[in-house]
Amino acid sequence: MLSQEIDRYLESLKSQKKFSEHTVRAYARILKDFTIFLKEDISPEKLKTDDIREWLWSFKESKKAVATQSQAVACLKSFGKHLVRSTVLKHNPALAIKTPKKPQRLVSFLSQKEVGRDKFDEGDLRARALFELLYGAGLRISECAGLTWASFNFAEELVRVWGKGNKERIVPLTKDSMEWLNRYRDFQCSKAIPCFPKNFVFSKDGENPYNIRKLYSDIHNLLRSTGWEGKASPHVLRHTFATHLLENGADIVTVQRLLGHSNPNTTQIYTHVSAEKLKESLKQAHPRG
């Protein structure tokens, strides 16, 4: 029966596929919801594409988030693949189901005026050095947490970063980034916190890095202190970095490389900048603008 195949499938996710416990629990909830929708424990051979499509429609009608809908589709496709691999079915009934498209995200970012030099005072040196890496180099907060002093080549004005998927990239440093990093390092040394190449940059003892939640809080508080009322997260500064580059003439491929995006589509969320600049140019230059 279908319930027995679901149990075998979930067990295989844990033992063979090494799925995370979180994903296994989520898939278990999805398949339970699906079987409840069917109203009976049918034979797997009777499972049809229309059954899956109708359930997903009811899923959508219940106002589930697009990400949740996408996970449900992924789950049913994976379960269908399991049934084929187990020779229970000849064809995957979920294969024809399309994954719902994510709505276009609106990127939150600060204007160039809002990140002007006069907006920030001396404040917390750690927070300011962190700010300059997020905004000046477009780093992720997780990437900043893993930096050691050996990551920096101040002579060449570069930082070596290990991003998602343990992929390495080298990013140029701004003058402000280097200034505040040096001031922060001098402060650390004055407190007898070692700043040798092997030591972590953002650490209270050089040996153990601050956790990401602590660094997130630094940026949240810094942005709020300037009067910024939008989302006060580190990623807003990464968005701001990319947006300001495009506003000042950088091409999308360069921005993609600096951000460490392996998929060009990920960087496309910033094309709103190009579109706005084109609209502005048209209004200024066209006689009927």
General description of the model:
With 289 residues, the chain is mainly alpha-helical. The chain has two domains: 2-85, DNA polymerase, domain 1 (Orthogonal Bundle); 117-283, Orthogonal Bundle (hpI Integrase, Chain A). The protein is built from twelve helices and three strands. The chain has helices at 2-15, 21-38, 49-61, 66-85, 125-137, 141-145, 175-190, 212-225, 234-247, 252-259, 264-267, 271-285; strands at residues 152-153, 158-162, 168-172. A three-stranded antiparallel sheet has the order 1-2-3, with no helix packed on it. Helix 5 (125-137) runs antiparallel to helix 7, helix 5 (125-137) crosses helix 8 and helix 5 packs across helix 9. The longest helix has 20 residues, at 66-85. The chain is elongated and about 70 Å long. The N and C termini lie far apart (66 Å). The mean pLDDT is 85.
